[in-house]
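Intended use. Records such as the Na+/H+ antiporter entry shown here are meant for training and evaluating sequence-to-structure methods. They are not intended to support clinical decisions.
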Amino acid sequence: MMTELLLGATLIAVTGVVQACSVRFALPQALLVASVGIACGAASLLLNMLLPHSALTFIAPLVAWPLPAQTCLTLFLPTLLFQAALSVNVREMLADAAPILLLAVFAVFVATGAIGLAASAVSGQPVIDGLLLGAIIATTDPSAVLAVFRSVGAPARLVRLVEGESLLNDATAIAVAGVLLAALEGNHATGGVGTALRVFAFSFAGGTLFGAVAGRLLAWALVHMGGEGKAELTLTIALPYPLYIVGDHYLHVSGVVAVVAAGLVVSGLGRTRLSPRNWDHLQLFWEQAAAIAGTVVFLIATIRVPALMRTAHPFDLVTLCAIVAAALAARVAVLFGVFPILARLRLSEPVSPAFKFVIAWGGLRGAVTIVLALGIAGNDDLSEPTRRFVAVLATGFVLLSLVMNGPTLKPLIRRLGLDRLSAQDRAIQRQVVRIATTGVEERVQVASKVFEIAPEIADKVVEQYRRSVALDGASNLDDLLSDQDRLAIGLLALARKERDLIPDYGYGVVKVSNLDRMTRNASDMIEAVRRDGRLGYRRRAAQILALSGMYRVSRWLHLHLRFDRLFATALADRFELLMCRRAVLEQLTRYNDERLNDLLGDRLVSMLDKLLHARIDAIEAALNEMRSQYYRYTWRLERRMLLLVALREGCASVAAMYGDQTISTEIYNSLNREFARAWEVAIARPRFS
């Protein structure tokens, strides 16, 4: 037991060292971990041959992993998949839903079939063994690819496509592998392809529904945690493992798909239910948990590679080359053969050939593939030839993708010019540098006086700074971009800022469903600006203020049947939405004047200001109409909202004094209890009359 604990601590330390080395030397983290694991495994084998009675007992638990295969899957997969889902920005990904789903579902079936047939034809193994191998290596690992993308500044859409595909194809591939594994183990009655597809459809759809419901329940529970970050984090920790176990073993649906679906729901709803600080803390925890899990499983697998390769045959190399070619061909066929159909059907924006080449070559395999291969290698229900065939080739495929695709991905991106900013982005970059330099020069002069440094040294530093950021010779933004382009830049900035400001009105001041609706509206506005510019912005702003169907129905019930409950809720929701929108827009006008003026110039900022004030005027007109019709009720709603704001600000002020050590813990806790009691009284909406 002591050895295992020490080994666990060592693995965590290795994770930290690998993370630092990955950043320091600009190398894929998975490649570094694989190198360490193979080196340890080779050393263990060598010492075992030289000194059989005194081999490296410290790493013996890794070389001869004591846990059963299913336990290994249950231990690592939920953490890896939940974190991947949690890190995705679901709302931004919706714009590319069609190509992502094509890559994540259809492409997995194509890859599984192509790899399975190629492996079976070359090796002579049964087709179902080849299909199982194909499903396992159809999963892709986004971490290494995204690290390369970020290091070279790849376009945001390319990052979204790869991130979304990597997450969802894991769920699809694992579900397919589960069906094939059950067929190999004899758990399903033989019924051919039709039965297999029905089992897969039930497993996938059931897992999606189960996970989505669980994610919604967790999102509901997060609202009632009172902003306590530790409680919120604990709830998310408690979710993935029960989902995986209950889905797989009791409901007989895909636990993997359930975990991914729940993670996506929490990712989409969590930002409006947690404070920005708590959300960042939650993301950081899960990112590190997944990093540790991924590193441990990679080490476990790669330490066993030297021993595993001793069972490999020379002909396995031929089979490996065949499945590599089949996997690449399947990927290219989907990208260049099916993607254009989506564009012609207007289901997606066209994807450039450069993007397709990078997506095809960037299909690195990683921790999920290794976990599945470990599970197959330790599955005693399968025949020994099947276990050896799948484990050896899956491990070889992962290592080959890391060695071949990983180091060449960055040069490919640069060769295709995807690391270069567009003319629009370059113009903005230059203008931002120009604006920032003014403030930097002032602060350098102030710092030189504080530290009593000679003015001529400060002047030299400013000159060096200007050269380092390539400020000299930068063109004017007006010369590089048209007014229409600069206006679109400003509208996108305003729409993104609007979306970012919305969570500030959470914590009970505004109903969570209203925050969700506002966030959806802001995301829709971003897409409208990208598609139609100023016209799209104005059209979407008008649609946002339109009366909802629920409001119209509830008002009819109120007027004709005197049924008031639904209308009171709809009226309060609409009034709350309008009040919050107006507050956000007032903040946007200040942001426009203070932050965008230097970037875009007075004339364009004035145009943006007119658009914002037109929205404010429309909201004010809608509010005044509601006040004139329901004066007493709206007055109570306004009083309630203002009281909630006052209580929240008071609570924040007390927390700040406690943080500054101005008040004791006893006083702080006592005041918090008082605020909590006052909040419980104030949170209830007034009765409608």
